């Protein structure tokens, strides 16, 4: 990409490397952000951006070492570093792709409409936005996976819940590479007596899980002797009449139906939960 741009610049110099006009870059941008090049960038940028926080955290840990401090100090004194430290360099890379759309849009403003260059730039802009969306998705998936692992580690080993069919569901049953976290949040489970219990709800790829916090650990929620693990198969989400923050979760399993009344902090949050559950079922 860099060499293609550099070559195009050299072609446009015409003997003067200070005063020149580059008439076309759209074709280079389309080539860079499509097909195999785009797939490689999505993969590499996705992995790099996903580990941004971890990299900065590791750097701070390493700074406790005197030899490492001296090494960084020496490298930062190099003029090529432009006084940028490691965290700044990492941030520079993660932010770079987000600046491409603004740059291309600015070039489009000064490009003749209906020209081949305008057409290529429009196509490139769409491809760049697609790539950024793909990278954002990879980062989101990684962060959710990390959060799920943190929650798993915090679940009490001996905790369990009884399913509708009488089987016992334990923490160990949650451990699976195929199971990923889709959504999570604090909700309120309305009991048979009308009280509300604070619950951490986790929407996974195949089940909806309700946890309670106890002694800085998580346990399966124990409310009205109902299972706190609900299969997404035949799960229905319905609004509670005259309760804009409430929803009924109806599990129509073969072992027998079960209904849960769950409330959230806002109507928007309730609607978001219902939409995500319906998408996952």
UniProtKB/TrEMBL annotation:
Every DH domain range: 1-138
PROSITE patterns referenced in this protein's UniProt entry, alphabetically: DH_2, PH_DOMAIN
Cellular component, GO, one term: cytoplasm
Subcellular localization: Cytoplasm
InterPro entries tied to this protein: DBL_dom_sf (IPR035899), DH_dom (IPR000219), PH-like_dom_sf (IPR011993), PH_16 (IPR041020), PH_domain (IPR001849), Rho_GEF (IPR051632)
Superkingdom, taxonomy of origin: Eukaryota
Name under which the protein is recorded: Rho-guanine nucleotide exchange factor
Organism of provenance: Mustela putorius furo (European domestic ferret)
């Amino acid at each position: 990409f860099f060499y293609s741009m550099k070559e195009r610049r050299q072609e446009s110099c015409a003997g003067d490397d200070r005063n020149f006009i580059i008439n076309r870059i759209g074709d280079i941008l389309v080539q860079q952000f499509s097909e195999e090049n785009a797939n490689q960038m999505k993969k590499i940028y996705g992995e790099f951006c996903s580990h941004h926080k971890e990299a900065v955290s590791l750097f701070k840990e390493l700074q406790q070492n005197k030899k490492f401090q001296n090494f960084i100090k020496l490298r930062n004194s190099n003029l090529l570093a432009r006084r940028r430290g490691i965290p700044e360099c990492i941030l520079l890379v993660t932010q770079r792709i987000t600046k491409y759309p603004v740059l291309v849009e600015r070039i489009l403003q000064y490009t003749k409409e209906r020209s081949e260059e305008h057409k290529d730039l429009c196509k490139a802009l769409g491809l760049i936005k697609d790539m950024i969306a793909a990278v954002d998705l990879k980062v989101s998936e990684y962060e959710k996976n990390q959060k799920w692992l943190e929650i798993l580690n915090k679940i009490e080993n001996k905790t369990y819940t009884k399913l509708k069919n009488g089987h016992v569901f334990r923490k160990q049953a949650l451990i699976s590479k195929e199971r990923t976290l889709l959504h999570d949040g604090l909700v309120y489970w309305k009991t048979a007596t009308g009280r509300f219990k604070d619950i951490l709800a986790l929407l996974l790829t195949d089940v909806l899980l309700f946890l309670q916090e106890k002694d800085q650990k998580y346990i399966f929620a124990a409310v009205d002797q109902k299972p706190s693990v609900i299969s997404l198969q035949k799960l229905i989400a319905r609004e509670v009449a005259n309760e804009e923050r409430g929803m009924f979760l109806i599990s129509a399993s073969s072992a027998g139906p079960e209904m849960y009344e769950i409330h959230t902090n806002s109507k928007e949050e309730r609607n978001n939960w219902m939409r995500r559950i319906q998408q996952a079922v």
